[in-house]
Amino acid sequence: MTKFLLAALVLYVLWRWLQPKKKPPVAPPPRLGESEARAVLGVDAAAGPDEIRAAHRRLVSALHPDRGGSAELTRRINMARDTLLGG
């Protein structure tokens, strides 16, 4: 009887150890306000979607990490574009 209980305990421990580990939930990144997004992209309140896309393209091409910029700046520029274009 004790051999059976010991075997069951070992199997249970192995089963628990082999279960996939659950990752903690990741909070979504904070969204930028519209005025802050416009300041990041350098566009005014009357700027349309084409101007916003052009400003985004200009900034990303200059500040991309592959060209010596930082990933944080690129992330903020992308967040600003998404905020203003509803993406």
Question: What do you see in this structure?
Answer:
The protein has 87 residues and is an all-alpha fold. The protein has a domain at 32-87: Orthogonal Bundle (Helix Hairpins), CATH 1.10.287. Helices cover 63% and strands 0% of the residues. The chain has helices spanning 2-18, 34-41, 49-63, 71-85. Helix 2 (34-41) packs across helix 4 and helix 3 runs antiparallel to helix 4 (71-85).
Residues in helices, as a percent range? 55-70%
Number of helices: 4
* CATH fold topology of one domain: Helix Hairpins
- What is the CA-atom radius of gyration, in angstroms? 25 Å
* Beta-strand percentage range: under 5%
By CATH, the superfamily of one domain comes out as: DnaJ domain
**Main β-sheet: number of strands, strand sense, barrel status?**
none
Number of E-state strands: 0
By secondary-structure content and strand pairing, the structural class works out as mainly alpha
CATH class category of one domain: Mainly Alpha
Estimate the mean pLDDT confidence.
89
Uncertain stretches: none
Measured between the Cα atoms of the first and last residue, the distance is: 63 Å
List SSEs in N-to-C order: HHHH
Which second-level CATH architecture of one domain applies?
Orthogonal Bundle
